[in-house]
Amino acid sequence: MNKVLLHCRPGFEKECAAEVQELAAELEVYGFPRVINNSGFVLFEGYGPEDGNLLMEKLNFAELIFARSWFVVQAELSDMDPNDRISAIMQHAELLPKSGKLWVESGEGDEYRSLLSFCRKFTVPLRQAMRSTGLLTKTERDKMPRIHLFLTDSGNGYLGYSRSDNGSQYYMGIERLKFPSDAPSRSTLKLDEAFSVFLTPEEQEQRAHSGLKAVDLGACPGGWTYQLVRRGMFVEAIDNGEMAASLMETGQVTHYAVDGFKHEPIHSNNHWLICDMIEKPDRVTGLMTRWFINGWCNEAIFNLKLPMKQRYTMVSDCLNQLSSALRHAGVRHEIKAKHLYHDREEITVYVHRRK
Ligand code: SAM
User: Fewest CB within 10 angstroms: 6, 227, 340, 350, which?
Assistant: First the structure.
């Protein structure tokens, strides 16, 4: 098939579309995106008959910033009989690979609430039908393809598959994290999700562990610092505001009421830099560049706030600017970026100094 369906945050369809079109073109897969504003998904249609499969094969999902999840569309389902949707779906079974999971999905947000509840209920009989024909394994398997049924309403949708080694491991690309009741702000979940998206569990053990030094720019009231403290790190918290008393009592946090754009790390062996200051993206990018060139950190996680219209252009410009400045200064590095589930008008960026 020639299409892929990409999930994104409702309102970010244009960014998701521009990105997939650009990255596909770099792989010489040409096509056009179909966008419905606020739908929470984008359909990219290639001109070649196998372009959907080709993209799943060649385009690294981790490079997509605005897509939360994706799959190759194998069949479009329209006007399914409400009394027998399963037959309408199963007639396309031979187009799908043997799979380890079935995800019946939709867009995200309030207007999809009742459809998502239908998706959950419908999963049970559809899974049963797919297991009985051998299309799905008897028990769920993480390392096999996943079947996606994306419904736009209870009678219409798209059926396809994704590869487990080139896609999100979560239903609709959303990792459900529990808000820790003692964290000072909900934005703590952003940093928790960022660690999980950008570092494997082994990398987290090696590089985000107890005893490391970290600096948090724009730290108050301390939701991000909380995640570092929880991992046993010692944090310089930079902000003119008030830090949560519970964090200060841990003895792992030192608070400096100074400007984050002027602060330099107190410790020469500082490892992490995190930054959630509400500032212009190019200004934050310049600051991050300075920290890496000066050798003040080895890894960083920061937000680029995107209240402007040209969000995709701004993100591309900032990441190109960061990468070329670091290369020019001889700093070997890796950059990853994602529009996380817990991000709103912003994206999260991860930078790692390579040995
Ligand atoms: N990450 C924090 C948390 O999880 O609790 C929330 C940070 S809040 C979005 C942004 C913070 O950046 C504010 O507390 C603000 O005072 C701080 N800030 C903005 N500009 C700053 C600057 N130039 N220097 C230091 N802090 C700054």
Answer: 350
Q: How many residues does the chain have?
A: 355
Q: Which ligand 1 atom minimizes the distance to the CA of 259?
A: 24
DSSP code string of 50-76: THHHHHHHHS-GGG-SS-SEEEEEEEE
Write down the pTM of the prediction. 0.96
DSSP-derived letter for residue 179 is P
3-class secondary structure, 159: strand
In the residue annotation, 138 being an active-site residue is answered as: no
Query: Which one of 179, 240, 259 would you pick to mutate in the ligand 1 pocket, going by the greatest count of ligand atoms within 8 A of its CB?
Result: 240
Among 3, 190, 305, 338, which one carries the catalytic annotation? 305
Q: Give me the pLDDT at residue 62, please.
A: 96
What CA–CA distance (Å, rounded) separates 63 from 49? Answer: 24
Neighbours of 232 (CB within 10 A): 12
Q: Which domains are present in the chain?
A: 3-173 (3.30.70.2810), 188-353 (3.40.50.150)
Report the SS3 class of residue 199: coil
Q: What pLDDT was estimated at residue 111?
A: 87
- Distance (Å) of CA 14 to CA 28, 97, 175: 21, 31, 23
pLDDT (tens digit, 9 = 90+) per residue, 236-249?
A: 999 999 999 999 99
The per-residue pLDDT for range 48-103, each reduced to its tens digit, is 999 999 999 999 999 999 999 999 999 999 999 999 999 999 999 999 999 999 99
What is the average per-residue pLDDT within 228-243?
98
Confidence of residue 307 (pLDDT cuts 50, 70, 90): confident
